[in-house]
Amino acid sequence: MKQxxxxxxxxxxxxxxxxxxxxxxxxAAVEQTRAVPRDAERTASxxxxxxxxxxxxxxxxxxxMDGDERANxxxxxxxxKHGTTAMMATTLTGSVAALQxxxxxxxxxxxxxxxxxxxxxxxxxxxxxxxxxxxxxxSIRPADIHEIDSLLKRAPRLKWMITFAPExxxxxxxxxxxxxxxxxxxxxxxxxxAEAVGALDWGATHFTHLFNAMTxxxxxxxxxxxxxxxxxxxxxxxxxxxTHVHPAVLNIAATTMPHRIALVTDAIRACxxxxxxYKLGGYDVEVKEGSARLANGGALAGSTLTMHDAVRNMIxxxxxxxxxxxxxxxxxxxxxxxxxxxxxxxxRGYDADLVLLDxxxxxxxxxxxxxxxx
Length: 374
Known about the structure:
single chain, 26% helix, Urease, subunit C, domain 1, TIM Barrel, 20 strands, alpha/beta
């Protein structure tokens, strides 16, 4: 058992004089007191819940599509050092065999040290070729119930999310078959407003990297973006790197969709590495000044963002107060992923996943399930 004392983000606000007791990887007690035990650790940093990333492909030279447990371990270790304590490992559009290999390796990596894998996010292959972005167009195909049934069996303990385009063949049937077991996210789509609203009626509940690879909002055709903004309950991802979405629009989305925005990284293997040329699926990606684009066309190809930088950008670029930003990286994505009862919040009974931020918002320390990340 150990205790940490200082300022902490609890119950939706920053509180002073918070004493956290950690025992066997969980938070055993949270109390406000000035009677600090002699052996408690005192910190001048702000203690916030560990970050939860719903959309992350890789980092430190590795990608979940590598289908390699050692590569996965590098991703988990790297992103944990940058504050991500839980994630949905994300695949790309690929062949049936490639997705089976990737998801199998992810399932076998779920108990590794570093960030915890809480789920698998299939970004495709059931998407629109016209909005494929950096996805492999040759592997895009109609929605296949049998393929998804087979994949789910490879990792039954994990949560599942599927990014899909509502307008493609078989999408409606896929959602009806799996909506009780899978989070369906609208993305990489040319759907219009009515089609997007229809998909929400079928059972979709989420939007993949809002504004990117989808129809935008026009005053006479609200598009997929409009459907997200006016929805009462649907949630959405934002890539807050300042490139994918303008800072002003980050602010607009967060203001329009309170408690429904989850920050994500969409990080690729180049995350954490120097500028240069890297592989994303079968494509060459050029990273210049931290921005990743396809070498043959210039389209954005994921990001080199970390969750720590996403949080900082929402504060420093989008101009939002830290009290509004922290839930976007913690409580909201944990709720979306179905792990709100143990992740995303500093409270009794929750996993002891903590990030300590100094006055400059730099990371001083990361704790995953009670253990310090080296």
